[in-house]
Amino acid sequence: MNKLVHWEIPSTDLSKSTKFYSALFGWKIQSWSETYAIFSVEGGVGGGIAKVEKMPEPGIDVYVGVDDIPAMLAKAEALGGKVEQPKTEIGGGMGFLAFFRDPCGCRIGLASEA
After folding, report:
1. Measured between alpha carbons, how far is 70 from 86 in angstroms, rounded to an integer?
2. CATH of the domain spanning 7-112
3. What is the bridge-based pairing of β-strands 28-33 and 36-40?
């Protein structure tokens, strides 16, 4: 079976992004080079934060599972992010989703069962 083993978040300011995601989700992030940092997610799939000159539009949406979408959106805003889509029911008993943009403009999805 094929499974997700790594994912990347683009960033126009690597330092700002590593501080943001560490504070928001509690991820352990370590510098790999001047243009790349890696993070681990306990019980989940880790990935990287890659330095880019210009923020690309999302070609793929990545969702982080959370317990409380409104609380996480509020925390993201307090850390300099911007809510793009508030908590929205997916339908069909699939739970809820929301989107925010991090301080550098990268779009990230949140997902929850309730």
Report:
1. 8
2. 3.10.180.10
3. antiparallel
